[in-house]
Every structure is written in structure tokens, then in C-alpha cells.
Amino acid sequence: MSGLQFNWKVEERNDGTLVREFLLREKSLSRSMLTDIKFKGGSIRVNGEIRNVRTTLHTGDLVSLTFPEEKVSETMKPIEMNLRITFEDEHFLLINKPSNLPTIPSRHSESSLAQGVLAYYQKHDLNRTVHAVNRLDRDTSGLVLFAKHRYAHDLLSRQQKNKTMKRTYYAIIHGVIEQKDGVIDQPIGRKEGSIIERAVREDGQRAVTHYRTIRASSTKSLLEIKLLTGRTHQIRVHLSSIGHPLLGDDLYGGEKGEINRQALHSKSIAFYHPFLEKTLTFTAELEEDMRNVMEMRGTSL
Questions:
Q1: What is the pLDDT of residues 18-56, one digit of tens each?
Q2: Is 246 in contact with 220 (CB distance < 8 Å)?
Q3: Which tens digit of pLDDT belongs to each residue from 194-211?
Q4: CA-CA distance, 273 to 276, in Å (whole number)?
Q5: Other Cβ atoms within 10 Å of 108 Cβ, number
Q6: Any idea which fold 167-265 has?
Q7: pLDDT digits (tens, 9 = 90+) for 65-95
């Protein structure tokens, strides 16, 4: 992130404000980022002159913030991939991830989407660290958002924490839920004796899943899912807990045969773009394997 710079004109409401408060309150920088700017090679300028965080600002001043260079991980190996890019600007990269590919490197896989992103950055001479804003399981397809710098990542992470980032999924389940639309509000925790599996348990963290039936046959249903919380394996655990596991999800009681992976797809994401100052919404069409299962070839959702 060498040389990445932001410039802001001080408005009347911030007249008399210290640089520190302007950056923390008005521009939502974290205190750790301010510390890094001070000690790791960044700079703060007011009207072109180097200043510190105790400087008093006045209406019309130009505040210029230069971030220190981010160090690219030496342990992550870049791997060239044909990335399906849904959106890109200087701050964010949104990718439609295929199934059978983890979001970040793991000891169980030779490649990951993050490694493909790193190769993409290097190909385009972007000296950037890979910041995944959200993550999908290896076999879940759909939208994954990456921030191109730490500042953007921090701002979007806050949106996730505050639940202002909205994500919607498609899921194919075994059977038909009698109540076509509903809410599953059951706490989720780690399953006893496993480091991978989760389960509904009284001492778990609250988890809330909204579902709506889109299409159904006698043996399976396509659901639209919206999450109020973001627990590990939440959709998979909740649907399994009510007797309707995902097709292909043999970890939580689903059966393979019609599809060779968990039938789950991240279909849309909506977030407030902090630099464009507007909300953006993106969608990714259902993957072909899930369409085939529901006999929806050529059908638009």
C-alpha cells in the first residue's frame, strides 16, 4: 500500500478540531492505524506541511494522510486464476468464487482464492496485502469481498460487526419445510469432541437465520436465506437442526448424489461504500450445478 493517500477538506463543523479527533471521529480511523502512521512510515500533512495529531484544524484546511506500506505475506504463494470479478475499484475487489476452492489458504488445500487475488495484484503491479472482508466455506460458491488496503478493510469489518452489511444466500435442502417462510433462532456452539463441527446447543452464541422458500419439489426445496448473525456453519447447522440439511452436506446429515458439494451459494451482498458514500448491491447468479438439481436450466431468479 505504498504511497496510498487520502485528502480531505475541513468543513466548518470541524473548525477548531484537533487532527486526532478529526481522523478518529470524522474519518473513522482506528487508534492502531494512527500509531502505525506515526511509527511505520506514514505521514499527516495539513496544507502540504507535515503536522502531528495535536494540530488544530480550521475551515478550509486540506488534510492529507499517507499510509505506511503494507508488507505482503512471504508465506502465501501467488497462484494465477481466472477470477470472476463482479466489481473492482481502487478500494475493493468483489469476486464470484466457484465451489471447491477455500477463501484463504489451509493445510487441506493446495490453492485458495486469496492466492489467486495475490497473483492478480502482482500481475497489475499492486503491492497490496490480501484482506478478505467475508469468507465462504470451500464448497460454498458466490460473492467474496476483498479490501485492497487496511483502511478499507477496517471500515467494512465495522459494518459486519454492526450488521449493516447485508448478505443473502441460496440453499437447496432435503425435503419441504411446512412453514414456507420462517426464522430459526437457536444458539450455535462448537460440537463436543470436534474442532470443525458446530451444533445447536444451549451454551452457544445466539444465531438467527431467516429463510424463504423459492421453489420446491416433493423431495427438495430451494431457499433464500438471510442471516441476522454470522456464526460458523450457521446455515448448515440451523437447517440440519430442523431436519432439512443441505443437499451434499454430509458433515451435517445431507446426502451426496445429486450434487457433490453442499448446495449453498452466496447470491448477494450490499454494503455502504465509505469512499463513494453510497450503498452498493451486487448479485451472483445461481451456479449451474445447483440449477441442474432444481431443474432450472435457463431460468432466471
A1: 999 999 999 999 999 999 999 988 999 999 999 999 999
A2: no
A3: 988 999 999 999 999 999
A4: 5
A5: 7
A6: Pseudouridine synthase (3.30.2350)
A7: 999 988 887 888 999 999 999 999 999 999 9
- What are the tens digits of pLDDT across the range 124-154? 998 889 999 999 999 999 999 999 999 999 9
> Which sequence spans correspond to the domains of the chain?
5-66, 71-162, 167-265
CATH 3.30.2350.10 for the 71-162 domain, yes or no: yes
Element (H, E) at 21: helix 19-21
Rg (CA), the chain: 22
Cα–Cα dist 262/231, whole Å: 17
Rounded-to-integer distance, Cα 294 and Cα 298, Å: 11
Coil vs helix vs strand at 102: coil
Length of the chain (residues)? 301
Output the nine-digit C-alpha cell for 64: 492529507
Residue tagged 445447483 (cell numbers):
290
CATH 3.10.290.10, applies to 5-66? yes
Which of these is catalytic: 137, 139, 249, 289?
A: 137
- Whether 137 sits among the annotated catalytic residues: the reply is yes
Is-same-fold flag (71-162; 167-265)?
A: yes
C-alpha cell at 222: 430451494
Pull the grid cell for residue 196: 470443525
**What is the grid cell recorded at 286?**
445461481
